[in-house]
Amino acid sequence: MKRWLLLVGVWAFLAIFLLYPLFRVAGDAFVVQGSDGVVFTLEYFRLVFANELYRLCFANSLVIGLGATAGALIIALPLVMLFRRIDFPCRRPLEVALLAPIILPPFVGAIGIKHFFARFGSINLLLGEWGLISLKDPPDWFGDGGLGGVILMQALHLFPILYLGLSAAVANVDPSLREAAAGLGAGPWRTFRTVTLPLLAPGVFAGCSIVFVSAFTDLGTPLIFDCNATVPTQIFLASSEASSSPVASALVMLTLVAVMVLFFAGRAWGEAGSCEMSGRAGGAVAMTRWRGLGGWLVTAAVCALLGVALLPHAGVALNSIAGKWFFTAFPTELTGAFYAEVFRDELTVSSVRNSLVYSLCSAGLDMVLGVAIAWLLARGRIPGRVALDAVVMMPLALPGLVLAFGYLVSFNVDVPWLNPRTNPTLLLVVSYAVRRLPFIVRAAYAGFRQLSPSFEEASMNLGASPRKTLIKITLPLIAANLVAGGILVFSFAMLEVSDSLILAMELRFAPITKGIYELVGRPQPEAAAVACALGVLAMGLLAAGLCAASRLMGRSLGELFRA
Fold first, then answer.
1. Most confident listed range (96-100, 188-192, 446-450, 461-465)
2. 493: closest CA among 545, 443, 532?
3. Does 342 lie in the same domain as 292?
4. pTM above 0.85, yes or no
């Protein structure tokens, strides 16, 4: 009986806070209340396509998604082949360092990189000093409307995810297939093009689909670059209205449909263009050992690429300590005053406090839900296990701004603590928890699968109830998995962007990311530096959380991000 009550409770939560908001947005987009009752309509979608601005937004978002995916692939694919084929000096620490771009949200990094690539930023000033360009009309590296800057930030932020996916795919390629191709006279390039690349197609698709969806639906980076002609920014602007219009709901549904269509089209391409192996890799990959000048040149090249990838981080760090940085390539004065201001400014103090509360509550909620769902999947003999597992994993592919907009539409009611327009605390906690629920479910599920049921059976044979067995036996034995999953939930919730920007409409409820966004919009020149100081502190917190989670789970840091 308790098992069924638990199952009903889990499904009720998922129905209210995951499925219902999506159905509500779809209902507002597809139906209209007429004189004859509720009528199905496509009129709102026609209005979206008839709007020139919306057409431009979809075109720009598509360019951002494709450009970021192409850029990430251009960076990641050569790196994968290099790290999996050549053993060069400092290879292992450099491979770990390649994951560093993940720990800084791209919209925070955009604040830092603007100081380098602005028209009178560090790059142009250095080139002007060297006589390579004229400072009377310096080049605009970001392109018209900041579109180039958004693409650059997304590519630099997301290429590690693609690198990890491709690394796993390369590890599963049987080396004997390449050896057979070489034995038949194929050169290295032809072997890569006709053997290796087709076998990597599913891995390329998996990584590219994640990169594309992330770049297409990113909200924060276009806002920082003042690139308002994108789909996410228009959804954000629509969400700030007093009441969400059906046209905005239609725009959200088109975003969700576009992402899903492109996702499944990419998978079909990957499956159609891939070749299957009879089994896993048949042996260890033979690596070429480079330890002379050639090896150190490879190390230098990787370090140079890593330096470019970490420019946003460097820009944020420099801005946070730059006492004076005006029309010079680098700061002329350094100060720690902006870090002190973080702990004095009313907005930053409240945003840090709010984020701590939201993140801790969301981690606790995910702990309860994750253990319950994982136990039902691993131990409970219940109907609909596949459906439950699929719904729980849905947030991994669901854009955060879609879910946040769904909350605005669904809970615009006369209940102050439930309506995000009056008090978003509950829905911010729930949205953070729902977005990261797959992490804790997978961590707990892995713990249940690794734990033999005989321990629980022995406890119950000695008279302990299922509840006491869970508390005294099961949970202590999988505690490391749960704590690691909880740390991941807490760390990522601290820097959640889309949910925070959309749901936290009043500054007194603003979390860290909303606080950073508001600081950047202030006219005072030191406000951006305070925002960067807050970003550095948040970046350090996320890095520490990821390292702690990897140690507790006994896995490398990269494995935490594998799809």
1. 96-100
2. 545
3. no
4. no
